[in-house]
Every structure is written in C-alpha cells, then in structure tokens.
Fold DsbE family thiol:disulfide interchange protein.
Amino acid sequence: MRPGRWLPLLAFAALVALLSAGVWLSGRGDRDALPSPLIGKAAPAWSLPLLHEPDRRLSSEDLRGAPYVLNVWGSWCPECRTEHPVLTRFAETKRVRVVGYDWKDERADALRWLEQFGNPYWAVVADIEGRTAIDWGVYGAPETFLVDGNGIVRWKHVGPMDDDDIERGLLPALESLERPR
C-alpha cells in the first residue's frame, strides 16, 4: 500500500481533532472571553416598531436618561426558552427597564410565545429583518446588553443567562452605574 493513500484520511482526522478541541474548549471557558467591541462605547442608534403596537416605534433616544437591559430573543430560539424564567425573575425586581428585542421573528409567533411563557419586558421591539442587530454585533439569540443612561454599552452576555450570570455579571455591572463617580 502506498503512503499517499493515507494522507487524505490523516488530514481529515487532524481536522476533526482540531474542531473537537475548539468545541470542548469553548464549552468550558468564559462566555465573555470574546468581549464585545461595543463595551464602553455608544450603543448603536436605533428605532424599531413595538411588537404589540407596530404603528408605534421605540428608539434609543427614547431610553436615554436611565439604564436599560436589551435582551435579544426569538420565538424560534430554544435557548431563549431556557433563559426566560431567569430573565422574568430579574425583570420582576424592576431594578432596571428590560427591553425585549425580538429578532428575525414573525410577529404572530412572537406574540404567541409571549402569551405562552409570559412577558417580562418593559417594552418589546421587533427587528424582523435583523438589520439593527448587525449594528449591535449580535451573533445569535439570546444575547443581553446593559446600556447606561448616557447610551453607553456597559455589559454584554452571549447565550442564555442563568442566575449565576445575573448575580456575577449583570448585577455588578448595574451596581457600578448606581455608584457616584
């Protein structure tokens, strides 16, 4: 048997090993290991229709003056369902406005999802085409941002939040906004 016949198989095995190592390492690391370039910078300006009242719009300018949490979700997103009870408990504290950002979703599906699982949001905006999400650097749903009253992004979480993410990430970031500077 010629040695050259094994070369494609060895190359494939090496590629599989490399990809497996990447998946394994990404699953055990910090989700904030790849920080958002928006942290410490002005949040993208946006104006989107409200999910429940599509003839009305909500904009980043409307939210100036007080911090808000922007939670990117979609009815099609299984991890959003996992995160939803955690986000609901946090929103019920009324510590900060939680704005839902329904991303690449059909309006009827999103409304049905909120009816089924509850609506913890202060307001819900809809980005059916996903254009505004590009400005935010959204990789996928769910993603969550904390924006201060001056419109500066202070914190970002990629993936579904759990209680630990709230306690160790979002709350300290929110408390840092509440401290006098």
Q: What stands out?
A: The radius of gyration is 20 Å. The first strand starts at residue 47 and ends at 49.
